Each structure stands twice: as C-alpha cells, then as structure tokens.
Amino acid sequence: MTKINTGKxxxxxxxxxxxxxxxxxxxxxxxxxxxAALLGVNYGSDDIIFSLNGQRRxxxxxxxxxxxxxxxxxxxxxxxxxxxxxxxxxxxxxxxHSATAYYxxxxxxxxxxxxxxxxxxxxxxxxxxxxxKEQGIIxxxxxxxxxxxxxxxxxxxxxxxxxxxxxRHPVIGTADSIKTITADTLHDCYNAFYRPANMVLxxxxxxxxxxxxxxxxxxxxxxxxxVPEFDCGGEPEETVAREKxxxxxxxxxxxxxxxxxxPRDDRLPWEINCQLALGVLAGPLSRLYGELYDKGLIGPxxxxxxxxxxxxxxxxxxxxxxxxxxxxxxxxxxxxxFNSIDTLLFGRVKRAAWGERMRVSDNPEALARSIxxxxxxxxxxxxxxxAFDSACIDSVLSLFSEMRNNSIIICETIKEVPK
Length: 419
Fold this sequence. Notes:
By secondary structure, the protein is of the alpha+beta class. 38% of the residues lie in helices and 21% in strands. It has helices at 63-70, 80-86, 110-121, 128-145, 149-161, 183-193, 209-219, 267-282, 287-294, 324-336, 343-358, 364-376, 384-390, 393-397, and strands spanning 2-4, 12-17, 23-28, 35-41, 49-52, 55-58, 90-95, 100-106, 199-205, 229-230, 243-248, 254-261, 303-309, 312-320, 406-413. It starts with a strand and ends in a 6-residue tail after the last strand.
C-alpha cells in the first residue's frame, strides 16, 4: 500500500487500488484498541435506472435496500450477524440514495471478522422463499415509516423538489414496488453493481497495511469488470411544488425547507462551499438564526445541512416551529438580500466547519464511513484541507444565485373536529 500525505489532518493513512479495481484504505491508529472495517458499494436507491455494456436497465424502487437485507443470508444457513456478534464485533449496514455499506467494529478477532465480511458480501444467495419472507418484513417497515413525521418530511421534500431524478423516491421503496422484486431482480442487480471496481474497503485501527492489502487480495474476486453508468432522467432546474402540507399527530408543527442545487463535478469543494453557505446564512453564528431564535420562531431543533447525491444536491433546513411559513418567509427574504458576507463571520463559520469535520478522526466507525462515502462520490477525503483552504467568500456567494428554487414541507398537527 502507498502512504498518503494527509497534511494537517495528521493521519497515518495508506491506499491501494487492487488489480480487480477494489479500492483499499487503511488509517492506522497506533494504540487504538477499537477497529473498524467498512465494505462499500457504489450502489444506492437512486440507481434504479442504469446502463451496463451498452444495455439500459430499469429496476424496482427499493431494490438496493432489499438487496442489502438479503445479502446477510449465506447458502449454508449461517446467520452472519449472529456470527459476527459472537466474535465480539458490532456489525451493521445501511443503504442511502447513493451507496450501500456493510461494516463492523471490534476490539478483538478483527481478521476473522474481516474474512466473514468479505465472505457474505461476495456470496449472494437469493431464493424465492427468502424474497417473499423479506417482502413481508420490509412492507411492515414501510408501514411504520408512515407514522414517523421526521421521515415523512425527509421523503416529501424530495418529491416537492424533483420531478424525474430517482431521489424523489424513498430509499426503502414503496409497498407496491417491493412486490415486484424477485430473486432474479436481486441477482441481476448484484451482478451489475457488486463488482470490486465499484467498491471500496476502508479499515481504521492499529493494523499492518500489508496485512490488510493481502487480505483484500485473497478475499475479493480476482476479475476486473466494467461498472454501471447512472441515469438520472434529465432533471429540470425548476421545483415541482412550492409548498406541501402533511398532517400527523405532532405536538408542534414541523417543517423542512429544501433548496434545489445545480449539480457540480468538483464534489468535495462543492460540499464544503454548501456547508459554509448554510453556516453563514442560517447556522448558529448567523444573524438570521439569532433573529428567528429571539422571536421564538425556532428552537433547539433547528438544523441545516447539505445533502448531495449523484447528479444533484439539496440544502436542507428543518426544525419545529409554531409558524413555519414565517420561518420560510424570513429565509427567502434573507436570500434575496444576501450579497455580501462579513469576513469575521466567515472565518468563524469556516473554523467551526473544519472542527466538525475533524471530530470523526477519533471515531473509527465514523472515519471509515466518511472516507468510503467520499471515495464513492468521486471525492478524496484527504483533500479536505485543500478544499477548505480554497473555499472563500466569493465561492460561497456563488451558491446564493441557486437558492431561489426552494420548497417547504410543513407537518401540521391533526386537529380534532368538534362534535
């Protein structure tokens, strides 16, 4: 493995691209007893339409998430989650709009756990009976999500912003879409996306780089294959709906404001500039935040963050408020008048953003996840110092011209009808 120059991040990091295309990172943490390993796939819920070897394919919503659930089943009936737990590891997995990942943390038995991680990820086993059983489990999960206002807000903001991009569909799929998923669907998608050249392994811990590289070589498939191309359907810049209202049994109204962004290729600088733009506009250090807080329009639940994905991005602002339209109006007024950034404020926001990024350094699981997700998005986590150094007031201000395309989702309290 090649040692990476991480500059002021001060990490002891190594990287290797194996002959089969698998990317391998090791962040060596001398003296750390805790270790983490993550095997990520550049395949998320948005990849329902893709091209491979000149052929265009369309698959049901929720397939990536369904596949993640079923991959823990091994042909001999072993329960991989139970086995990893018995080794003293804490295993888990997730599917997002852009990626799927399988990971574990442990103090001991790291190499046996890593071997098992590779084994179940690279041993697909899908049967009609297993698929039917999982359809019932995920259908219950979908039903439960309908009673979770926070998740409904998150899902609905994307349907208000996007008309064609698959980000408008929930990661988990719908009750109807998962009924159309078959064992053949899973095999086809697995064979298309679960190729080493479309994957990354990130390991964090007090481990030997050569041992990790050798294990990845032995445990992953040898053949290098082409990877699928994403198709987002040609999304227009305009939003679908200006405002949407849903109703649920919440004590106080909730809201989510989404700003639809024009996608850019320079992923890491773009992400940093988005984070800084939100910080100076509506972060805890901003004038708008203080004004809204003093007026009682927002409280501790108010938050903001960029959410970037393949061929798209959204700036998200959310929280609880007695008068969400007033918050939205204040937000829009601030955008219209935003033509300069105070140098002192910008410096404070930039330092706070850097500190937030660096906090993951002492958390092996969070660090492994950050490196893998950056890699799969086409960015290099270890270019963070350079991205922060290049971020300036002008680069952040350029984002404000895009903030006219925004929508708000409001979750109102269900009111009892007088008898």
